[in-house]
Amino acid sequence: MTEAPDHPAPPPPGGVLWSLTGDVRALLMLPSAFVLQVAHPAVGAGVDEHSVFRTDPWGRAERSLRSLQLWVYGGEAAAEEGRRLRRAHRAIRGTDAHGRSYHALDPAVYAWVHATGFPVHRHAARYLVRPMTEEQERRFYAEWLQVGRILGIRDRDMPQTVEEFWPYYRKVLADEVEATAVVRELLATDVPLPPPDRGPLPLRLLLRPLWPLLWPRFARFRAFVAVGFLPPEAREAIGLEWSDAQERRLRLLARVVRAVVPALPERLRYLPRAREARRAHRLSRAGRPAR
Fold this sequence. Notes:
291 residues; mainly alpha; 2 strands; 63% helix; globular; MPAB/Lcp_cat_dom; oxidoreductase activity; ER-bound oxygenase mpaB/mpaB'/Rubber oxygenase catalytic domain-containing protein
C-alpha cells in the first residue's frame, strides 16, 4: 500500500462521481452521510464540541458542500482544499462520551468520516437515480479512494477494493457506531432552526416571516430523508426505527424526484461548480477555451 501523494488528482471527468456529486439530488443524500459520520463516538464528540452546526447550520452546510464540490470539480484546487481541511482539523481533540481520548486526524477516525460517503451514496442512488451496475460500483469506489487521497488519507488506512470495504464497514457498524448525542440532535424535530442566512436576499426576506411555520416541516423532512437514505444495516446499527409506511413514502418521493430532476435544464439540475466544470470540460473537448 502506498502513501497519499503530495498532489493527488481529482476524479476524472465523466466518471461516476463527476455525474453524481454535482447533481442536485446529491443534496438529499448528504444528511444521511452526516448522520452516519457522527454516529461514531469520536466524530460525534468532535462535532459536538468543535462544530458550529448549532449556531451556524446554514453556513456550515454551505462550506461543507463547497468543499465537497472542490474535491471532485476543483482541478488543481482540490489538493489544496484537502490540505486546508487537515490543517483545520489539527486542533480538534478531546474526550468522547465513553471517556476515551480522540483526535480528528486519528487515521481510523478520519478514514471513517470519508468512508461513509460510499455506502450512503450507493444506497441513495438506488432510489434517486438508478441502481449502480457492478462496474459502476467499482469505478465509484476507486474514485472515492482518489478523493480520500486528496483529503490526505493514506491507502493503508482505507480498504482498497469493494470486497475489502464491506467487512471493514460491517465491523465499524458492529463495534463502534451508536446513537450519539449529535445523532439524536440532528434527527430531532422539535429543536428550532434559525432562518436561512444564505442565498438570494429576496428569498431570505420572503422566508423570514414564514420561518416559524416552515422550520418544523423542514426539520421533519430533514430527519425523514436522513434516516430514509441510510443503508438499512446502518439504521439498525445506530438503533433508528423505520416503518413500512415510511418506506412507501420514501419510494414515492424518490419516484417524483427521478421524474422531475432529469427534465430540468442544466442550470437547475447541477450545482454551480459542477455546471462550470461540465461546461469547461465540453469546451476543452471541442478545442475551445473556457471563458
